[in-house]
Write a structure and sequence with these properties.
Elements lengths: L1 H28 L8 H14 L11 H7 L3 H13 L5 H36 L2
C-alpha cells in the first residue's frame, strides 16, 4: 500500500543521494592526478544520461545490459528510484536491489578512500 510505497521510494532516494555524493566526490578527487577534470566529468555525464534512466525507464534496456548496470552506481543514482516511483519493482526485487545497491555504495566508497589517500601521498611527496 501507500506506506510500503513511501518507505521503498524514500529509501531508494536515500541510496541514490548517497551514491551520487560518493561518485561526485570520486570525480572531484581525480583532480589530484589531472589538471583538467572536464574529461572524466563529461564522460561520466554521457554515461549517466545514456544508462542511468534519466531519459527513459532503465528497464527498457536489454536484460544483459540492465544486469550489468545493476552493479554500477549509475543505476542507483537515478534508474532504481525511478523504477520504484513508477511501480516496476516488486517487494522481492526491491530487497535484492537495495542489498546490491549497498554493496555498490560500499565499493564506491572504498574506491573514493583509495583516491583520497593516493592524492595525499602524492601531495605529501612533493611538499605542497
Amino acid at each position: 500500500g501507500l506506506v510500503w510505497y513511501l518507505v521503498s521510494y524514500g529509501s531508494s532516494l536515500a541510496l541514490a543521494l548517497a551514491c551520487n555524493l560518493v561518485v561526485r566526490i570520486g570525480l572531484g578527487l581525480l583532480a589530484f592526478d589531472m589538471t583538467q577534470t572536464w574529461g572524466p566529468e563529461l564522460l561520466f555525464m554521457s554515461l549517466f544520461f545514456a544508462f542511468s534512466g534519466v531519459v527513459y525507464p532503465v528497464d527498457l534496456l536489454p536484460a544483459p545490459v540492465l544486469s550489468v548496470l545493476g552493479w554500477t552506481p549509475l543505476f542507483y543514482m537515478q534508474g532504481f528510484p525511478n523504477l520504484v516511483a513508477i511501480g516496476r519493482v516488486s517487494h522481492a526485487e526491491w530487497l535484492s536491489y537495495c542489498g546490491r545497491g549497498l554493496l555498490v555504495l560500499g565499493f564506491t566508497f572504498v574506491l573514493v578512500i583509495f583516491l583520497w589517500r593516493r592524492g595525499l601521498r602524492k601531495f605529501e611527496a612533493t611538499g605542497i
